[in-house]
Amino acid sequence: MSISTGKVAGEDLFAEATAAADELYSFRDNYFPLSPEERVSKLQIQSDLALQILDTIPIEKRKLPLQRATYEYLRGKVLDVVPVYKKEAEDHLSKAVKLNPSLVDAWLCLGNCIWKKGDLNAAKNCFTFALSKGLNKNILCQLSMLERKLAQDAENPEEVVDESIKHAREAITLDVKDGYSWYNLGNAFLTSFFVTGAWDHNKLIQSLKAYQNAVNKYLENYERALTGFEAAALMDPGLNAMEDARMMVLLLDKLDYLLRGQSKAKRLSSLSSSLATVDLSPSYKRATMDLLSEGLNKGYAIIGKVLFFAKNESLAPLYYVLSDSNHTFYVISVYGIRSDAIKEGDQVTLLEPFYRFVDFSWREKNKQTHFVGLTMAQVKLPCLLYGDKMPYLFFLVGLVLLFTVHVEFKISYLPTQL
């Protein structure tokens, strides 16, 4: 995070402060060092930096009720990023929702803050009021989690857990691709399995299916994810899971087009030839895609030039088409960074990628799609990606959870088997 020193319009300062708060929470959700104390310490440091950015907004730019509400909301949100309850955060968030009751995320933050001090019913009221302004998957997931907590001391725990399952399902209908929502639904089903006292085997199976969908989505096990979405659609058509399966196939089609259709462009060949020299540690050997083998490529580093950003409807992961020095085109998918962190023309380095080969077919309506030569590469923390134009990315990579590389990606359409 950097603090602006120039004269910026109030709107731009609010936008900068909002981006800082979003980055702070992205850091919180992805930074998990071995020491919990280190995590809290780093969160506090990042929180202080975000507050400094917020304080650059002049007093005269936060006098109007809506401006003041946004300021109070952002300040409360930044203060509440740490795991412990902070009354100061609650005070700011309370002011924000009083000034502007339509600030949905402020209600979410206030509910989370109050939850920390143990007032579960008040937290539920915050989430419920926020949902009255419109459905939101994050609020639905938090409400579902809170209801499972409330069920522990409820006279009718089964009914409360049923509400938890209901809200978890609603979150998935809003974004069937969201792995966290599937994980939350799995937790709800698992809680129901134990709470009922009847040891309903079906609840356990439903829990497992939801967990599998979450894992397959995040690990990009495309065949398993598609199969899981199909199974989910059969069990509960209201989840609209087949639409997500269709979107996943469209994404793979798009990646195939970028890899095959653009590889002959002279401009791209010229761009990929301009790889800058990278001072690698002596423990790493520079390699090209053709030298990699399945499994962990320990001691190897792949350097590539970013050619395209492949836009897709899902917020995560982000997909980029790259080329190595041999003009071999491939795709990386990245979690935990903003869409503008890596740009076309940037140079990135992957250290010790782990590959696994995938070959599967998927039938959709009147065609069968055959995905050949998908190679997955998982890269572990800490810093595993950096660029010649992006020294700041060194710090962002602490948020990267997964890279995926697809080599020689081809699609052929086969006759549908009846």
Automatic annotation (TrEMBL):
The keyword Oxidoreductase does not apply. Residues 283-369 form the Tetratricopeptide repeat protein 5 OB fold domain. The chain crosses the membrane at residues 390-409. Keywords: Membrane, Transmembrane, Transmembrane helix. This is Tetratricopeptide repeat protein 5-like isoform X3. It comes from Nicotiana sylvestris (Wood tobacco).
